[in-house]
Structures are given as structure tokens and as C-alpha cells.
Design brief:
globular; seven-stranded mixed sheet; 280 residues
């Protein structure tokens, strides 16, 4: 059993890269990919810790892309984190995040919340700061008790303190991952809430642009959705990947490797991914 979707303190998770590998060992996983949002900041530590672990490690990332009025997430696997083009693009995204964070901070202050950027930074291990860190700071200040309520009232889309941010296009995500020697995969397709025919058309177009796989096995995917996604992967010769989308204490009901209890991502998927990468 493997898990190809998890997050560390370098994006919006609560566990260090090393702690993720310890949890993977405890869960009996054979392989793990670290897929932090729009950053490779934790990968050096993750890959180094993997050399001392029984769990195989795979470099990963989760890139956000604009798709009409929706946000599309593209996972990348097995790429070179030091690739110059990828790092340049991530720096552009990071600069946009910094601008957005200042705007959110201004909105929060206008709404009467006494919070500083230093309060927010205390909850992030990397320069990448996002809404979960704002939520943690607000909870730490005693303004809220739960992250979900912060998003519902303040930080969720269209809420009072929400500010949109820079995102890459789907084609840019695919090209960056391919250019760095990796395999691009469409993350959690059910979250797009597209009718099956529209999803198929989107996947077909993305396949033409370099998509290599789709996340079929996912914590919140229902059996009928998983079956439908398996069929799409077969039709378009895509790798059917999977992962829990583990965020540690921020998703307490979800466990690494098992999701909400029913998740089981087959070991052989890692082999298929590695074969796909080596053949490109």
C-alpha cells in the first residue's frame, strides 16, 4: 500500500517531512510522495529522510491552475526539484501569494481582527504562507476554535477577507512538470464537480497537452466515482494514481495511507509511474 498525496509544514500540513515518513512506516506503507502546494521546499529533507527509511520516497508537488471559473490541481511526480524553469515559476507564484497575504491582512484588520504577519508566520515553516496559516493565527489569538469556521466566515471564497491569488494555467503546469522530468497527474477530479461528459472532454484535452495520469484512488471518492475515473484512465491511457491528501492535525479524521478508512492505493502504481517517467 502506498500514498502519493500528502502535505507537510512546508505548505498546509502540520507534520514535518520526517514525521510523515515515520507515520508512513507506522501505517505499513511501502512508498510515499510529498506533494506540498506550489513549493518544493520540503523535498530535500523528505528525500534525505527517505534514505534512512523503509518507505520509498518520490518527489512530488501540487500545482494550482486556473480553469475557467474553477481551480484545477495538477500533481507532479518524480521530477527534478532543482529544475530552473520550475523554480522560476514557483517564485512567481510565491510573489503573488505574498501580495495576496498583505491584502488579506489588511481586510482582516479592517474587520477588527488584531493580527500581524508575524502572528501568521509562526504557523508556517517555509516562506510559503496561505489561508490555513491565517486560520491558525486567528485560532491562536482566540478568535475562533475551528479552522472550518474561519474559512466559512472569513477566508473561504467570496467571504469578507478572501482575496484571490495568482495561478498558473493547466498547460504551464503540465509543461513545467514534464520539463523537469516528471509525470503530471490530475488531482481529485471529483472536486471539480463536472458532469462526466465534460470531465472526459477536459481530460482528453489535457492528455493532448501532456497529462500523464489521474488521481483515481482518493479519500473522498465514492466507489461509483472511482470506477468511472478508472474507465477514463483506461480510455486515455493514463496512470490511475492515488493518495490520501493527508494534512496531519488539520484533517484529524483522515489518516495517512487509509484516508477515511477505506483507501488502499496499490503498490504497483509506483512501478507504473516510474516506467512512464523513464520512457519519456
Amino acid at each position: 500500500m502506498i500514498d502519493l498525496h500528502c502535505h507537510s509544514i512546508f505548505s498546509d500540513g502540520s507534520s514535518t517531512p520526517e514525521e510523515l515518513l515515520e507515520l508512513a512506516e507506522q501505517a505499513g506503507l511501502s512508498a510515499l510522495a510529498l506533494t506540498d502546494h506550489d513549493t518544493t521546499g520540503g523535498l530535500n529533507r523528505f528525500m534525505a529522510a527517505g534514505k534512512e527509511s523503509s518507505v520509498k520516497t518520490l518527489s512530488g508537488i501540487e500545482l494550482s491552475a486556473e480553469y475557467g471559473d474553477r481551480t484545477l490541481h495538477i500533481l507532479g511526480y518524480g521530477f527534478d526539484p532543482s529544475n530552473a524553469a520550475m523554480q522560476e515559476a514557483l517564485e512567481w507564484v510565491r510573489a503573488g501569494r505574498e501580495e495576496r497575504n498583505l491584502q488579506m491582512l489588511k481586510k482582516l484588520k479592517t474587520l477588527g481582527y488584531k493580527i500581524t504577519m508575524e502572528d501568521v508566520r509562526k504557523h508556517s515553516a517555509d516562506e510559503l504562507i496561505g489561508r490555513p496559516h491565517f486560520a491558525a493565527a486567528l485560532i491562536g489569538k482566540g478568535n475562533f476554535k475551528r479552522k472550518g469556521k474561519v474559512f466559512k466566515q472569513l477566508l473561504g471564497k467570496n467571504c469578507a477577507a478572501y482575496v484571490d491569488r495568482r495561478r498558473l494555467t493547466p498547460v504551464q503546469c503540465l509543461e513545467l512538470i514534464r520539463g523537469a522530468g516528471g509525470l503530471p497527474v490530475l488531482a481529485h477530479p471529483a472536486q471539480l464537480r463536472l458532469p462526466r461528459n465534460k470531465l472526459r472532454r477536459m481530460v482528453e484535452k489535457l492528455k493532448e497537452q501532456g497529462l500523464g495520469g489521474m488521481e483515481v484512488y482518493y479519500s473522498s471518492h465514492q466507489p461509483h466515482q472511482q470506477k468511472a475515473f478508472e474507465g477514463i484512465c483506461e480510455d486515455f491511457d493514463l496512470v490511475a494514481t492515488g493518495g490520501s491528501d493527508f494534512h496531519g492535525a488539520f484533517t484529524p479524521d483522515l489518516s495517512l495511507g487509509r484516508g477515511f478508512g477505506q483507501l488502499c492505493v496499490p503498490d504497483e502504481i509506483l512501478v507504473v509511474i516510474q516506467q512512464k517517467i523513464s520512457n519519456t
